[in-house]
Every structure is written in C-alpha cells, then in structure tokens.
Design goal:
The complex is a heterotrimer of chains A (816), B (174) and C (229).
Chain A: H1 11-17, H2 19-25, H3 31-46, H4 49-90, E1 106-115, E2 118-127, E3 146-149, H5 151-159, H6 161-166, E4 170-174, E5 187-191, E6 208-210, H7 224-250, H8 253-265, H9 270-302, H10 322-345, E7 347-350, E8 353-356, H11 366-379, H12 394-421, H13 428-439, H14 441-472, E9 474-475, E10 485-489, H15 494-505, E11 510-521, H16 526-529, E12 539-544, H17 546-550, E13 564-567, H18 576-579, E14 587-589, E15 604-606, E16 612-613, E17 627-630, E18 644-651, H19 658-667, E19 673-677, E20 681-682, H20 685-719, H21 721-729, H22 734-771, H23 779-807
Chain B: H1 3-11, E1 16-17, H2 18-29, H3 37-49, E2 53-58, E3 67-71, H4 73-84, H5 95-106, H6 111-135, H7 138-163, H8 165-172
Antiparallel strand pairs in B: 1-3, 2-3
Helix pairs in contact in B: 1-2, 1-3, 1-4, 2-3, 6-7
Chain C: E1 7-18, E2 21-32, E3 36-40, H1 47-54, E4 62-67, E5 70-71, H2 77-86, E6 88-91, H3 103-113, H4 118-131, H5 147-159, E7 165-169, H6 177-194, E8 197-201, H7 205-208, E9 213-218, E10 221-224, H8 225-228
Parallel strand pairs in C: 3-8, 3-9, 6-7, 7-8
Antiparallel strand pairs in C: 1-2, 1-4, 4-5, 9-10
Helix pairs in contact in C: 3-4, 3-5, 4-5, 5-6
The chains are: A alpha+beta (816), B mainly alpha (174), C alpha/beta (229).
C-alpha cells in the first residue's frame, strides 16, 4: 500500500528533537500551561456546535456505560455477601440432638410449593414458650392460622386466587427487609397448631424443634463450573465495553486532528497539541464518569425488578466498595487520556495537515498470533480441572480468556488489511467501498473490533452453556405422558392414601390417579442378629391396587385382590444378600426400626407360596421399584413400618390450571405431603436466565458499537459532502451510494464476524476442555450472534441513509 | 513603444537596408500594425541627424530605400540605456471610457449597457488573441498573453466600475 | 461555431431562491450544439445556480429548462440522473475526484455508472488520459497528483462518456495561469473535436476568452451578449 498523504512524515520529529525547538517553545510546561491547554481542550469538547456536542455526548455515553457496568460488577461481591448474611440469619440449623421443649423453643416445618413455575417457601411455626424469638423481619411469631408474607408473595397472592386457596392463612403483615434475601423472595411464615415435634430418630411428628433462627454460615458452594461461568460472563461483557470505551474516546479523531493542525498553524507546539487533545478526552471521560454514576444509580433502582438465577437484590445491597469506586473514578479518565495519547503517537500533526505514520509497512501476523497463543497457553494447564467443587485459579482463567479475546482483535487489522487489499473490480458501489477500506483499513478494523470481541466471547459462552446445561439439564427417565404430578406423603396408611387418591380423582382436570404405599422389610432374624441395621437385608415393599402395581411391574392381567409379586432389581449390585429372602415361602420382618440399632418387636410376614416373579418397569416418575409388590388385601398396611405414599396424577391437557388444582388439593393433605411435577428433563431455570442475560448484554454491546459505527460513518459522509454532490452531478444513483455505504460497513463486520466465530469456537473449545466436556458446536448460538451482528450493520446503513440523502443535495456543490 | 530604439536595436546585429529593417520589424513586432515605409525613413533620418546611425553604403539607383544603415557607438550606448531604463508604469486610466461613463450617467443614458458592450468588445478581442495564441509559436503566445493580461486588467476595471455604478451615479449627479 | 441551428439547451425566465435571497431572478440562456458559452459575473451573482439548473441538478422555483426540446422539470429525478450520466459531463473547481480511486478508475467511473463493463470503460478511459497528456497518472490516486494534473483528469472524466454538454464550474479556479490555460485549451479542443457544447462558469476574462460567446449574470439576471449586440 502506498502512503500518499505522508510526504512530511517524521518532519516535525527531527525538528522537535532539537534542543532549541524544545527550549523556547514551551519552557518546562508548567502547571499553568497544563491547565490552560486542558481547559482549551475541554472547551473544544464542550463547544463546537451540535456536531461537537453529539460527539462528546457519544463519547460520554460510551464511557458512562462502561463505568456503570464496572460499578455494578464491583457491587456484586458486597451484594452476594449481604444476601448470604440474611440467608444465614433466617436459616435454622438442626443440631441433630433432641431439644427439650422450653420457654424459647418453637416448632418449625417447611412447606414449599410451586405456582406457575415460581417456587414459594413457607415456614410453619408454633412457639412452645413465651420467649420464642420470631424470625428476622418479623416482630412476633404469627399466631395459628395467620401468616406474615414477603411483599412479592403478597402481590402474587392478591393476583392469584388459586394460590390464595392453597395458602389460606390470614395475612397479618409483611416480612421486613432483614428477613428477605431479595425483593423477589416468595416467602411466608405461618402459625400452625398442627405441628408435632419429631420423635427420636425422626420417628413420628412433622416438625423440628428449634431454639432460635440464625445458622452458622455455611456459604453456598456454587461450584467451580459456576465460578467459571461468572468469570466468563464478566469478561465477555466487560471486554467489549472496554473496547467500546477505547473507540468512543477516539471518536471524531480525524476532525480533532485537523483542529489540532489549525492550532499548530497559529504556533502551538506538539506537546501543547497533545495536552489539548488530552483535555478533550478528559472532558468526555469525566462527563462520562458522572453520567455513568447516574446510570448506575438509576439501574440500581430497577434492580428490585430484575431476577437472575432466582437472585434479586435490594438497591441498597448494590453498593460498590469504596476502594473499587475510587479506582474506577481514577482509572477511567486516565485510560481515556492514555488511549488518546496512544492514538496520537502514530499521528504527526503538522501546521499544514495531519499525517499518519506506519501505514507504509504491511502488518505482520506472527506477533499478533502470539497474544491468543499466550492466552491458550494459560488455559491449557487447566484442561479437565474445572469440575465439581475443585478450586480453580480464576485469575488465570480470566487472563487467559482476555488474552485470547484480545488476540482476536489483534489479528483483525491484519485480516482486514490482507483481505481488503485483495479485493478488486466489482460494480462501482463495491469499488468505492473497497478502495475506501484499502486506504484506511485501520479505522474500520478498530471500529468492528468491539463487535468481534463481543461475538467471540458470546459464542464461546454459548458453547460452554450448552455443555454445562447438560450437567444441569438431565434426563430424569420419567415419562410425563403417564403422569404429571407426584405426591408423596410420609407416615401414612393405606386408608389415608385411599382417601387422598379419592380427593385427587375428584379434582378438576385430573384424568387418572394411581398410588401405592412404600415401605421396607428386612431379614427375619434381624432382631436377634444384633449389629447395625444397615448390615441387615434391605427388602422394599410396595403395596397398591392392581392398576397401580401395573405401573411398577409387568404383572399382566393376572392380578386380583390378594395377589403378590416379586420383582428382581434391575442390577443386583450390593443387594445379593437381600435376594435370598425374595423367594416364595420365605419369611421376612416388616419392622425395621428407626436409628442404627434394631428396635421394636419383629413383625413377621411370609411371602405367599406361588408368588410370581415378574419383570420390573420404570414408573411414571422415572424410578424403578423392586422387591415385594402386594395388593392391600395381601398385607395389612398397618403392619408396614413408616409407610410413605406415592401418588401419581395424570391431568387433562385441556385444563391449563389442572396442575395448580392438584397442588391445591394436595396442600390439604398435611404438612408431611410433598408435591412435585414430573418432567422428562430437569432444568435449572437459572441458566436460562443467565443465558438470556448474556444475549441481552451482547445485543446491547453490539447496539453500542453500531452507534459508534454510525457516528464515524456520518462523520465520514459529512467530510465527503462535496464529493457526494459531485457524484450526484454525474448522475450517480442514490442506490449506488447507499450500496457503497452498506459494503463499507459490511465488509469489515463480516470479516470481524468470521474471525469472531473462529475465535469464539476456539475459546469455546478451550473452555469445554477445561470443564472436561466433549467438543460440541453450538450452531444455533453462532447463527444468532451472527444475525445480531448483521442486524447492526443493516441498522447502521439504514440510519445513515437519511443523512446521506440530505448530503446528496446540490448545496454541497457550492464552493465555500 | 519607441520605434527608434527598436530599429536601432535591430541594427546592432549588423547593417541593414531600410527595407530589411521594416521587414525585420514587422516580422517580430508588427503583428498588429505593420510599419509604414515613411515612418521607417523619417525615423532613420532623425537617428542619422542625432548621430546614432550612419549610412553604410548606397546601392546604385538612388532613393531612400537604397540606403544601408549601420549603428554608431553612440547608437549602441543609446540602445543600452533604453533597455536598462525601466518603462514608466503608466497609470493606465481609461480616460476615454471613464469620460463616456460619466457622460452617460450625467445625461441619464444606460451606463451599464455601455460597460457591457465595452466588455463584449474586449472579450471579442481577447477571443481573437486566444485563438491566435493557440496557433502561434512561443513568441506569438507571449505577445498575445501580454495583450490578454492588459485587456483582462481593463475588463476587471469594467467589472468593478459596473459594480459601483450606483455609487458613481450618486457622486456624479450630486 | 457560431450559428448551429439546433438549440441544445434553452432556459427561460429561471427563478430560484435559497431561503429569502434570490439566486436567480429571471435568467435565460440558450446553448447550441458544439458551442462554448461562458457564464460570467461577479461572485454570488448566481452563475453556479444557473449551471446547476441547466444541468438538472437543481430544480428552479419557476421558469423552464428544455434539453433537446424536453422540459427538464417534468422529468423524474431518476430520468434527470440518467441524463446526467449519458448526455452531460462535469468539471468542478477542485475536490471532485474520488480520493480512493486511481485516476484511471476516476475517469472510467461515468462509463461504469452508465453500465459499461469495467474493462471497456478503463480502456476508453486510458485513451482519454492519453489525449489529455496524463497517461502516466493512470495508476496514481488523486492525492498524489498536482492540481493541474488533477483538473486534466477531471476533464478526461467529463468527456469520456461522449457527452453533448460539458458543464465546467470554475475549472481553472484553483490553478495558476499557465496550468489554467493548458486545461482550458485541452478542454475546448477536446470539446470541439467531439462536438460537445461547453457551459463554462468563470469570473476570469482570460478563461472566458476560450468561449465562443459569453453570458453575463448579475444579481440573478442574465444577459446574452450576443442577443444584446
């Protein structure tokens, strides 16, 4: 490439290097000179008409968004800490020892439910003495039948009569902030007189006896993978913002350089122009800093409306640490000035014009590849190590990732230059665009580097999400076609279960209900054998009617009241001992006893002779039962030890609220009843939200970058208005010029996106290797990101068309 | 232009007949107006009288055209001092034109038309000179350019006067 | 070329105002095939506006421009643009060459805009560069050539499409006398050779002297000196 505009490059350096030149021009630039020049720069930034303001505001907005994001990021640790403290404060810790009732003890049982996918936690309380302390956020223990709810739940209850039916307690107040982790918490404390303390070894009862709220801190372990995700999201969102801030500070650089050249003409020396430029950048950055603080404060107010991974935060929780705040306040303006100085280093501002250096030589690829290579070198030792609860070096991950992503932007100018330099021919619009890019591929590469980083990071994260969600979204083996809700109750009887089943069957929208009792038995000589209970045989016993038993095993049509069946386990590992008792005619002991040692008296029962052995079958909830299957007529359920019921309900698809009706019915079954829905996969909603957040962040970043692309495009068009007018005079079609604008944006962005895809997949592969997942392409995510990128290009082009039309008016032909 | 000095200068390269002198003059300088014979002889007579030339010989047959002239030392000195002497920069007042404009204004005639037709006339001449220039050699071009620049200067004056006609009218008719 | 029968461009009673100030206030002009018409007048007299109206770049507020009998104000913008591509050529004072394109590509551009293939267009452009004695500039960018050279490239570009009318707005305005004269001679000679008419806006009498006749614009009114005479 030739360098037509650089005939005098280096001219001034030689002159300024002379001792005389430096001597008289600016004797030891004192503080006053600095202040004067900085103020002059600030005046340029603040003045300069509408255009000048637009540019300054854009710079400021770019910086502000960066600052706001940084402040937000710096507030996260404090927020998590505050949440954690409040979580611990309302937790109760079961000591495991039986607490004797006293003046300050109370009974507590958790009753959780789900409404339209939202998890609601309920705590039933019953004070046993006058001194029982209420939970945090409550003034007093709620009396029986009354409850205190979180504000979010209060709102939900008010708008959902169906849920109100399920949680019918009279609302007497709301939980204070001290008792909530976040504003979106769905939580209630209700007084209940139905609570009975568990006996020793949790025999009988339905509630814990506690002395106070507030457990010892046992910080939630999120796991290495979650930490990796967090680090990645921060890097992927912050890095493009950093790149954007860097480009925002350079916005309007060409015009500024010309202004500085005019200053040189009236006698400013090089250092003075640098200080003026610094003043300009500083003004934008300081303005941005204030704006960023404002953005942050505004965003903070909205924090209570946002829930990410079930985490919501009070605005007051989002308080950045003072040290980090000071660091941000200092680092951002300093970085702005540093970027300006760096960009000026390659520019020689002469009285008669601006010359750029270093355009002559071709870019070299090898050192640009060193950057991502260094990043990869940092990540490779971590391959396979980010699993489970392993501690990982987050700094190493962050540095490696940043280097990899920055490496992508380092390669970009080389790529743009090499590709654009090879473009030839084509229609006029294409020719105009490619030639323009050839002359200044640097600027366009810089403009799209933000897009590239954002997309590369997002693609890598997408891949990681894909793999990680496989960890969290797993096949439960359940068959939601057979039943949709599972209701389990502990300590029950077949009469109770039958009652429950009748109730459920009568509930609106229910198609079919099956249910059985689950218990266990052991070898007949367990009582006399001594030793630990866990050393004795383990023999599951399931009692239900024929229809229910058919869901558990392939018993066929041959079943009538009084039938029994034997089901071998699907794999005999660890149960060989038990299998010898599973024979017709064998006697077994239906009493197992709580605790480690056998207790109580043996309840012996003989497996009837002629009991068929049948193959097991996966039940609707996905589990596979084995052992003894019997109809209620074969075993008196009252003889069963600690029987638990398993009721599965199939609902009618045509009744959308059927599930909620079933839950309401089940809510009346008592504290010990537990309800959950049966689904083929179990997903954590949290990751969906994090994923959505990533998309939103990436889109926002790209829109920002689009805005700066637009501004530089408009600036360029305005600088070329004379030329545009001439082209119009020649009869150039508007469409041709529009196409050339489109190409001019598209070519660098497409190159950027291609590089981003390559870099993103590379980083993604590295991340997958770190968590030990097999390589897996996320084509959908990649296509989405590419689509967002393309939309940005299209948007920029469309938005620059109206000004283009306006500039194409013949006024431009008037000689100034 | 001083014809005397020009003829003297032509003689410096060697003695010439009056007839030769006229031809040499016309060839180099007489594009617009060829020299009349009478003017050559009257000029030569004056130069002879002043001792700047002398008669080098007379061809047989008589008549002034037969005389061959040569430059004298005094003549050479005279040419030298003429060349060394810068021309007095003439304040080239368009006296006639100015008079016409003022008269037109005074008598209420359209002075702008007068200026416009004068401009057309100037441009017509300039066009002719431009055409001649493109056909001629370097000498032609330089001479034409000289005239063109002068005419341009006149034209600029016309332009300026036209722009100030109202002002002038106000002053003249006061 | 004085009395060609066919009037190519006829403008009658053109009026055009930019805001409150009238740029044209009843201007008229006739251009015949092959003639060079100088539009003269002081700065701000409306010369350029007249040229823009004639070329169909600007639509006059009132009045009428007919090109070969067709009323330009009745044409659509697309038709006028097409006309400028095929029938008109333009030379401006400066800043008219696309800085990213080489001189050859600049000259070839009008042909390419009119739909010619690149190779043909550039071959023809090369002959025009030769004709304007700037062959050696073919591969250079406008930033690398002198003002006079650039104007010669611009003249080549104006003439390459064999236009019927070349509009030249102060084509020598940024040049010294010698370069200006050279550009003017090349422009008028080439126009004569191709039979193109030239509408030449200038305030320099010596440049106007390359015309066949002149029009004087003053305060938005034009006087055809030939008709006046």
């Amino acid at each position: 490439m030739t360098a037509p505009h650089e005939p005098f490059a280096g001219f001034d350096r030689t002159r300024a290097a002379g001792p005389g030149g430096a001597g008289w021009a600016e004797p030891a630039a004192g503080v006053r000179a600095w202040v004067r020049d900085l103020l002059l720069g600030a005046r340029f930034a603040a003045g300069g008409g509408r255009e000048g303001w637009t540019r300054t505001v854009l710079t400021a907005v770019g910086v502000a968004l960066g600052v706001a994001l940084l402040l937000l990021a710096s507030a996260v640790p404090a927020m998590m800490d505050a949440r954690d403290q409040r979580r611990v404060a309302r937790d109760t810790l079961s000591s495991g020892e039986a607490v004797q009732p006293g003046a300050s003890t109370f009974l507590l049982a958790e009753t959780n439910t789900t409404y339209h996918g939202k998890d609601i936690t309920g705590v039933l309380l019953h004070p046993e003495g006058p001194a029982a302390e209420p939970p945090p956020g409550l003034a007093a223990m709620p009396p029986a039948g009354r409850m205190v709810v979180s504000p979010a739940l209060k709102k939900l209850l008010a708008s959902s009569p169906l849920l109100r039916e399920r949680i019918p307690y009279e609302i007497t107040g709301t939980i204070g902030k001290a008792g909530l982790m976040g504003p979106a918490d769905l939580y209630y404390y209700a007084g209940s007189d139905q609570l009975v303390a568990y006996g020793a070894g949790q025999a009988g009862g339905n509630a814990e006896r506690e002395t106070r709220f507030g457990a010892h801190s046992n910080s939630e372990v999120l796991g290495a993978v979650f930490n990796l995700l967090l680090v990645m999201v921060l890097v992927v969102l912050l890095l493009p913002v950093a790149v954007f801030v860097a480009t925002a500070v350079r916005l309007g650089g060409e015009r500024r350089d010309r202004r500085l050249a005019a200053l040189r003409l009236v006698g400013a020396d090089i250092r003075m122009t640098r200080r003026v430029a610094a003043g300009e950048a500083l003004f934008g950055a300081l303005f941005g800093l204030l704006l960023g603080a404002a953005f942050f404060l505004i965003a903070r107010q909205f924090a209570s409306h946002i829930t990410i991974r079930d985490i919501s935060a009070f605005p007051s929780d989002l308080t950045p640490s003072p040290a980090l705040t000071v660091l941000i306040a200092v680092a951002v303006p300093v970085a702005a000035v540093a970027v300006t100085m760096l960009s000026l280093r390659a520019t020689v501002i002469e009285p008669l014009g601006v010359f750029r250096q270093g355009v002559g030589q071709r870019r070299k690829l090898w050192w640009r590849l060193l950057v991502p290579a260094a990043g990869l070198a940092l990540l490779i030792p971590l391959f396979g190590s980010v699993q489970g609860d392993a501690r990982t070096n987050q700094y190493q991950i962050a540095t490696g990732t940043v280097l990899l992503l920055v490496g992508v932007t380092a390669v970009l100018p080389w790529l743009v230059e090499s590709v654009v330099g090879r473009l030839r021919g084509g229609p006029v619009a294409w020719q105009l665009a490619t030639r323009r890019l050839q002359l200044n591929s640097n600027a366009s590469a810089r403009m799209v580097s933000g897009v590239t980083v954002a997309v590369a990071g997002a693609i890598a994260l997408q891949m990681l999400f894909g793999a990680v969600s496989a960890d969290f979204v797993y096949d439960t083996g359940a068959d939601p076609a057979r039943a949709q809700i599972l209701i389990a109750a502990s300590t029950t009887s077949s009469e109770e279960t039958a009652h429950d089943i009748r109730q459920l069957a009568g509930t609106k929208g229910v198609r079919q209900v099956i249910g059985y009792l689950q218990s266990q038995a052991t070898q007949p000589d367990a009582a006399s054998r001594g030793g630990s209970v866990s050393d004795s045989a383990y023999l599951p016993v399931n009692v239900g009617d024929c229809a229910s038993l058919r869901e558990l095993a392939a018993i066929g049509a041959d079943c009538e009241p009084g039938s029994t069946f034997l089901v071998p386990p699907s794999h005999g590992v660890g149960v060989e001992e038990s299998l010898q008792y599973l024979e017709p005619g064998h006697r077994i002991d239906l009493n197992v006893g709580y605790g480690d040692r056998y207790s109580g008296t043996p309840v012996l029962w003989t497996i009837p002779a002629g009991t068929r052995t049948v193959a097991g079958r996966v039940d609707p909830s996905g589990s596979r039962e084995w052992g003894i299957l019997a109809t209620p007529e074969a075993i008196d359920s009252n003889r069963l030890f600690d029987a638990r019921s398993q009721i599965m309900v199939a609902v009618d698809d045509r009744e959308p609220e059927a599930v909620e009706y079933v839950r309401n019915t089940a809510a009346g079954f008592g504290v010990t009843t537990y309800t959950r829905s049966i689904s083929g996969t179990s997903a954590k909603a949290s990751y969906t939200q994090l994923r959505r957040g990533l998309f939103a962040g990436a889109t926002l970043t790209m829109v920002l970058i689009g805005a700066s692309l637009l501004v530089s495009m408009l600036e360029q068009l305005r600088d070329r208005r004379k030329l545009l007018a001439v082209l119009v005079a020649f009869g150039t079609k508007r469409s041709a010029l529009a196409w050339s604008v489109l190409w001019q944006t598209t070519i660098p962005v497409v190159l950027g996106l291609v590089l981003a895809c390559a870099g993103g997949v590379g980083l993604g592969a590295a991340l997958l290797a770190m968590v030990g997942s097999p390589f897996h392409m996320d084509w959908g995510g990649m296509a989405t990101m590419a689509a967002i990128g393309s939309a940005v290009v299209l948007g920029v082009t469309l938005l620059s068309l109206p000004p283009l039309w306006r500039l194409m008016r013949p006024d431009g032909l008037h000689t100034e | 232009m001083s014809i005397g000095h020009t003829l003297l200068g032509l003689l410096e390269s060697g003695p010439r007949h009056g007839y030769d002198l006229k031809r040499a003059f016309d060839e180099r300088f007489g594009h617009d107006r060829p020299l009349a014979y009478g003017q050559v002889y009257s000029t030569m007579a004056r130069l002879l009288k002043n001792g700047l030339v002398e008669v080098d010989g007379i061809e047989p047959g008589g008549g002034p055209e037969r005389k061959r002239y040569a430059i004298t030392d005094a003549g050479v000195t005279d040419v030298e001092s003429w060349l060394a002497q810068p021309e007095k920069p003439e304040p080239y007042l368009q006296t006639t034109l100015y008079t016409k404009v003022v008269l037109a204004l005074l008598t209420g005639r359209p002075a702008a038309d007068l200026l416009d037709s004068q401009r057309a006339e100037h441009l017509r001449l300039m066009r002719e000179l431009t055409r001649r220039k493109s056909g001629g050699d370097l000498a032609d071009q330089l001479i034409c350019d000289h005239a063109l620049f002068h005419l341009e200067a006149d034209l600029r004056w016309l332009e300026l006067t036209a722009a100030r006609l109202d002002q002038l009218a106000a002053e003249v008719t006061r | 070329m004085t009395a060609a029968p066919e009037p190519l461009l006829v403008a009658t009673d053109l009026r055009k105002a930019y805001g409150p100030t009238p740029a044209l206030d009843g201007a008229e002009l006739t251009v015949r095939a092959g003639e060079v018409v100088a539009v003269m007048g002081p700065s701000g007299s409306g010369k350029s506006t007249l040229l823009h109206c004639l070329a169909g770049i600007v639509t006059p507020d009132s009045g009428d421009v007919r090109y070969r009998g067709q009323q330009m104000s009745l044409m659509s913008d697309g038709e006028r643009s097409a006309l400028r591509r095929t029938d008109f050529g333009f030379v401006f004072q400066f800043g008219q060459l696309v800085p990213e394109l080489t001189c050859l590509e600049n000259v070839a551009m009008p042909l390419r805009l009119a739909g010619r293939r690149r190779k043909d267009a550039e071959a023809l452009a090369a002959t025009w560069l030769e004709r304007l004695e700037v062959t050696d500039l073919a591969g250079k960018r406008p930033g690398e050539v002198s003002g006079g050279q650039g104007q010669r490239v611009a003249v080549a570009r104006a003439l390459v499409g064999a236009p019927r009318v070349v509009f030249a707005d102060e084509p020598t305005g940024a040049l010294d006398s010698l370069n200006g004269e050279r550009v003017m001679r090349l422009l008028t000679d080439a126009a004569h050779d191709t039979g193109a008419a030239v509408v030449l806006v200038t305030h320099e009498p010596r440049v106007a002297a390359y015309s066949d006749r002149e029009i004087v614009v003053r305060d938005g009114k034009s006087r055809d000196m030939e008709r006046a005479a």
